[in-house]
Design goal:
6 copies of one chain form a homohexamer.
Chain A (H helix, E strand, L loop, with lengths): L2 E4 L3 E5 L11 E7 L1 H11 L4 E7 L3 H12 L7 E3 L6 E5 L8 E5 L15 H4 L5 E5 L1 H4 L2 H16 L3 E5 L9 H11 L5 E4 L3 H6 L15 H15 L3 E9 L4 E10 L2 E4 L3 E4 L6 H14 L4 H15 L11 H8 L10
Parallel strand pairs in A: 1-4, 1-8, 2-6, 4-5, 8-9, 9-10, 10-11
Antiparallel strand pairs in A: 2-3, 6-7, 11-12, 12-13, 12-14
Chain lengths: ~350, ~350, ~350, ~350, ~350, ~350
């Protein structure tokens, strides 16, 4: 099995510990982004994974490539060129103080990429799965065109296509998102979303959810999933359910709608180390499980356990093994020392 | 609006993370103190704030000035002279292990200051509010004289005066504190205290509180506030209510007694990053809210939300904006990532 | 009073914070091991304590000696020679992700030590207590012989002997452990174990405990203690009871069976800073309390409070004073700042 | 005396120590830029100094303001708005490996500023000196227009105007630079340049210099200065002379041409800590000395000593006092410990 | 072109800065070793490079693989198995205090490897060059057998073979080294050595060199090279010439004997950042240059410039590009900032 | 052999690297002082060494004790009591920027100590050597009395007494120093001084030295030594000769006058890591060599080599072994890696 993801990788700059931006005399640096994170997850699970993007031809772009190589991702299609590497500044929240992200991604190399930059048939050679998120087309019209070309090529080559809706209000409006994303949906088999995305992108709202307050209604999510399925005829719809108690503590679960059945995972009460990339690690887990032929409920539990573990790991990436995820999914959440 | 605070600023030296003093090979350094912290809070809220003190004429004293300047405080009246900058060593506690403070403030420049050092009419020119705490006069008789002169000048100039009782048993006895503080009370409009101060300074005890055990009685605090009001005719009395579950987890709330009414804030369950300066951030929030003409209940909720956020921030200072406090006071404590 | 412990000291290498091994660009270094940790606990309590071991004659071995000296342990019998200092790599877990230990202790100097290396009568001169754990004999047959010689010499010299069963599956099998440990038991007065040791070493199982799930049955532990007492005629049997909620949160308590009575300590809900050495700090507390003539229940509460505090301290060692432990054992778990 | 500078302030991100970009897991962060650096130098010398720029209205922009405030610079005219704060990545060289700068300053807030943003008469109220460098107009045509307006307003208000030619090949061509800079020269009194600038901007070449090889000819520099004076009728021309032995060791000196006389400073052999901002610290020293009415030779020696010391200080800024500079300019370069 | 190297990769643990082992509370961690370093050099030069070794199947072994992947080395033949990853502790010297290495490499996975573990024909498929050093066979007889098999397979496949004699007295005696290494020499085309190796391995001594004193005689080295060539009929012999002035300052040059001609490189006076891997970076540069068909003198200057730059880079690896090396080899050693 | 030293130990707080005080967000912490440093030197050379002082009874005082214990010093006579531990802030200089020390030692526990605190006969039991410096009596009259008592007791017990004149202008005047120190000289056998001390304490000036300029005249120093010997009848007079080229580079040598002969050591050109404690390490080396019965010239060379190495070591203490010193004294200053 082999998977391909396509999107942006950014330099993430975060003050050490719980310092606020204004207090920081240094920034911890990692390189991440939604689709890059999924590729690393898959590589850590032993799935050959390629990440497709464009980075500037300078040492910062090279460092982004190196980070992906380090964790075993195929970087042959991390193209070089363009102005700069996108940056995001992350301030880690705690207790009632939320984490804060300042994006500085304008003029990023990938946002300047064009459809012609990518030889999709070559990229997809030997691949089984293609994954992208709503962030990629939001980067610019030319990138959106490249996404469409990728979807078409993926379908033509017989790949399964997954899309994490991942709405980002800083990048585009709901209106623009809805129109653009709708183009890709015919090619998508597996649709992934969090508790807000379906509404923000396609105007599909869970009737009685209260996201800020953290209450989650199973029935509401079922309705959303059914509506998504109805509109776009997805093979599977997965929705992550985050209950935000505080910046330090979250509840985490997900639902999978497949073959007419709704599966709800167990809910993990999480003490957060690093919450960024939580959704991506769910996508990574789900893709791995589906590629491996897990039953729907098992696939869901694997994906949720994988992303639960992500919240305990610094950085955007989910550095866990299949064995570690299976232990947790299998019921051992005790955190006892492994000697 | 413009505010002035008067007191000591110290070099705070803390081992990294949760190391004990004996384990530390380095100390993280910030500069803080009760009244300095209030000045920074106010500056962060956009209120022109001046901090009055004395620091030694050496690079350590200069660094204290720089830290205040950095956050926008007017440092024109941080005088130079005297022997040394006071120091306090802070060991951060966790779970059942309490935080530990070792004071090393003898011979500090401010403790050697004299009434004549400060030109209060000039200092208060254009100001609306004067704030000090019980720590300032506890530093020495000559500083207490300066406090009295400040109170008189403030009143003469029509400022509102607030005082945080802030009893420190290492600096003086309850007897000395009671006698000294009583001199200033006629000038004080707003009295701020924590759950112990009223008893330690003026012998006014909440009948049925158990501070160590963490139980708090609303009726007890009402009684304390009424007695304070009766004795000193304050315009407002505010008492913070800390429920210490452990060094890692506290409950935090406050009461405001004003115009004959008792207001109790919501209670925040806090996962602590840095607890020092919690009370000061309450005072800063309350002064801001009162200067801005908030209704009593709103002022209280603003002050409590501000100080709740402080517990999530490293160092003595409360680095939050008005907008951040209002979001929390408005009910969003979910800590969801702000993008 | 004076105590002697015998065992291995290792270099512990841990990534900073919550980084995984693969993410680490540096390792924090401390030196610890079961019996070394007990010696440091005792020295911190003011008990003259000697640690007996063998370290390589190189700067890494010297650093291990220095660490023990730093905290006041008598290092006259930390012999020099052999190939290398054992190492263990520690990755700190969080939430549902368990801590992970990678041992790299083969060819360690102490594992190469022989009975003849240690002059036990000289070592025990003036001593009242001898402590070892099941790890020491597990290091190799020649070390096991040294343990036996130590036990015999300790008894001959009238010392009290304590043993923490401390089963390590990486070092030996249950079968080998049971056979070897049984040789030492006739010399042991005080037997210490965690919730698994008795079963793993001597096949004595608490009937209805579920360790991974974190449920603990008082009756089950009573049965284990009685059986241990029956088989080996110990003066006292102490069993620690860890309830693993997650890698971040544990419940911690213990039982002491002495003079026919079962004592159960209070249970501490712990927010974990560093869990390694938790059991050793219990042993250290118990030995101190017994050496000081505490009543059984008081000794137990002292030992549990001591080890509760250990969980809030970085590194293997328990850096707390008798006064700090007594404050907690006396009921103040509020973690309020000590000024 | 009071001085105003105008230009860009950037976030500088540098790997710790001598790590290369690709090795870095964190970046040390300071905020600097040519004109900001001059303002800090002057503030450190006790000269009231204001820095005029535009930064984005986000925490990164605020941090830049805070850094300037911290060192006593007047930040009232650091406007807020625009897309982003410019960034430059700095890799510190050593021995034969040169330092490396990767600029990421496109779309910076200041580059988007327009003439109308700045109320120069208000800004220059009470000021004696205006300083800018060739970097500011290179940021964009609209900024160049603002520079021209500033020059005109400064002259109208009777200020002395200094300009550091500071050619940056990444920002514009020599042709564009020459044409643009020529517009400002009629308003400039004091022209500052390094060994390359005069040639790169105005095509004025020192006949026999070999910059890469590090040989410097006094006569060549005299010729350059005379030609500059002839063309633009400057009151004074200062040229810094850097002899690059390696990335670790430089020789440093300067020439001042004033009132028809050439003054050459002593040459300092420097072991480099941080070379960035070296030229700015020379400008800062020269402006201070001229504002203070130093004789030409003394002003030159002060400026060179100030900038010599800068090379021993981390970051872009020159954190030295007048007394420290005078000690070195006075001949004590022994570096003996000051107790 | 494609190259393969074979040897050990170790975890290198070094105290930060200039701390001695006994002072260190942490160790900086990188992964390196003679042949691994050469592979990274080549990858950084754009040469497809594979590193062949064996590491333990645990996270520490995985981290070693990741480090190689990060810099673009093919790790398909970094096998997994065996006891542990070898470690070396490095204390960085300064001035008159030498750097100090404590090896802890017994029982390393690669030392336990056997001839059968490596499928050389597959490994060498498509490769042009094979490189090993004298360290590899010194790890144990079974590894020496694997080296012999590799040499034979390399020759059979038409690869060029290079060997860096690299004598390590801690691993074997000169006698054993001489006997073992002699077996491989018939397969070796390019022999690389430092100023001591030829004597220590084959008893060939430069008549009048004084290594400790730092004097180097060109004639002596010529004699050594001629004798090596005579004995083993190498195509080329390269000898590095290190003049140790102090732990902080070295002179660095090399000689290449090829086609009957002696070439001496320029000598670089180096201010040392990290001296470890200096020889390996020379080998890497030489292999690149020879693979690229450089003339002998150019190849030598490239190799010496590459290794000169290595001394300015932290860690074992040489992170420089071909362009950077060529700039230095071309004569620009000024270290001027590259913007 | 056994030695005793008496004096102050301080907490030393230094910004990391070359940061100035005003830039520091943390301070590296070690514990040192003239006589403490000598004790550590001796312990590192294997000489049983006791350090006598008084530290406050708080965790900071305990940390000072721990640091001494860590390196093997007998701390039985580090008494507890008094107000605080003295502090000194150290800013490391570089190139032309000198290092800077800010003392904050008023009210230190040792300065409050009295003659009666120290039981000298018990302290000197079994000892051969007593060492103190001019700093100890400068701390206060009561400490000076204790020094006198120590000298008398030391002589009575037959110890050799050494004194490093070590004049500190911040602690007393030359006049006071001269008068006080003169009292102790009759008991002193070995007098140690730097190039300034003899003049500052006893008005004995080297006729033609220029300390700031770095020129040193052998004849001048001979004259000083002879005069010292004449006045106080010392057995030996040692003078260190520091040539300050810059804060980064010093020349270092010394002279020993004994038995009517003048011995001059070789001169070491030193690239400085940490210069503080340089003189103390000379004293430590000299005492070791004299206690060990070295010939005068050998003792001198040992002492100078020991202190040369100190300059390459972070912190106040000299962490070197006898073997390391002998290697350097024996002529190997090449700094080649020790494997």
């Amino acid at each position: 099995m082999k998977a391909v993801t396509f999107g942006e990788i950014m330099l993430r700059l975060a003050p050490p510990g719980y310092l606020r931006f204004e207090q920081a005399a240094s920034f911890e640096a990692v390189y991440g982004g939604g689709e890059a994170n999924v590729a690393v997850s898959l590589a850590n699970f032993g799935v050959p994974a390629a990440f497709v993007t464009k980075v500037p031809d300078n040492p910062i772009g090279q460092a982004a490539i190196n980070e992906m190589r380090r964790y075993g991702v195929d970087t042959a299609y991390m193209l070089k060129g363009g102005d700069r590497l996108g940056i995001y500044f992350l301030e880690k929240g705690a207790s009632q103080r939320p984490s804060k992200v300042v994006y500085d991604r304008k003029l990023s190399a990938i946002s300047q990429a064009r459809k012609e930059d990518f030889d999709w048939p070559a990229i997809f050679s030997g691949a089984d799965w293609f994954h992208f998120t709503g962030i990629t087309p939001a980067l610019g019209d030319s990138v959106a065109e490249a996404v469409l070309a990728a979807c078409q090529a993926a379908k033509a080559a017989g790949l399964t296509v997954s899309c994490d809706l991942n709405f980002r209000k800083n990048l585009w409006t709901s209106e623009k998102a809805g129109k653009t994303m709708a183009q890709f949906m015919p090619y998508v088999d597996v649709c992934i979303a969090n508790e807000e995305d379906a509404e923000k992108v396609f105007g599909i709202k869970a009737p009685d959810s209260d996201i800020v307050g953290g209450s989650l209604s199973h029935d509401g999510y079922k309705a959303v999933a059914e509506e998504l399925k109805k509109r776009f005829n997805f093979t599977a719809v997965a929705i992550t359910l985050r209950g935000s108690i505080s910046a330090s503590d979250n509840n985490w679960a997900a639902m999978l709608y497949k073959d007419g059945e709704f599966h709800f995972s167990r809910t993990y009460p999480i003490h957060i180390v690093d919450r960024v990339g939580g959704g991506d690690s769910f996508a990574g887990g789900l893709i791995y499980a589906m590629l491996s032929g897990f039953a729907a409920k098992d696939a869901l539990e694997f994906a949720v356990a994988a992303s639960c573990l992500k919240h305990s790991i610094e950085g955007d990436h989910n550095h866990v093994t299949v064995a570690e995820v299976k232990t947790l999914a299998g019921g051992d959440a005790s955190g006892r020392v492994q000697r």
